[in-house]
Each structure stands twice: as structure tokens, then as C-alpha cells.
Amino acid sequence: MAAGSSSLAAPIRDRTGHVVAAVSIVTHSSPGAGPEQEQAVRVAAQGMSRALGRHRAS
């Protein structure tokens, strides 16, 4: 990662709840953008987990 950047990641779980992958992004660090990006990564991971059969919140 370069100076001035930040990374966010969230686990992707299979139907048994085991972590099988992750989704991540690297962005430029900027004040105030964090919560929206965190939510986007979380929602993406939850959607992929549901596609793998995960039905509980992770």
C-alpha cells in the first residue's frame, strides 16, 4: 500500500459460517469517507455470503 491510502476488508462466509474468502478495497485516505466505504464493503461481503448459502448475519 502507498502512503496516504487505507484498506478495508470483510469476510465472505459459506453456508456453515466458515470464512472462505474476503472482499477488500484500497482507497485514498480522506476524512469523512470511511463509514460509507465500510458499509459498502460489508454489504458486498454479505451479498456474496448469501450467494454461498449463508443466511445468518455475520
TrEMBL record:
<protein>
    <recommendedName>
        <fullName>IclR-ED domain-containing protein</fullName>
    </recommendedName>
</protein>
<dbReference type="InterPro" id="IPR014757">
    <property type="entry name" value="Tscrpt_reg_IclR_C"/>
</dbReference>
<feature type="domain" description="IclR-ED">
    <location>
        <begin position="1"/>
        <end position="54"/>
    </location>
</feature>
<dbReference type="InterPro" id="IPR029016">
    <property type="entry name" value="GAF-like_dom_sf"/>
</dbReference>
